[in-house]
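We both want to read discrete structure tokens more fluently, so let's practise on a single case. Would you write everything just below, so we can both look at the same thing?
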Amino acid sequence: MCTVMVILSQVGYMMKETGTIKMHFNSVILLKTILVISVSSMTFFFVGYGLGTAADGGIVGDTHFAGQNF
């Protein structure tokens, strides 16, 4: 549910930005929003998932980075 809210907030920011600039630059804002969502998703996959799961009694996890040990 939190993931959906974050993605929808990115769409809201995109709509706000496209409303404040000329029509000529709307494709730049769309590309920026797609890149932000893509890069943050890949970063979470490579780093965040490993830190967020498999803590085994510790504070942060030390396995499952970039799809290892599945």
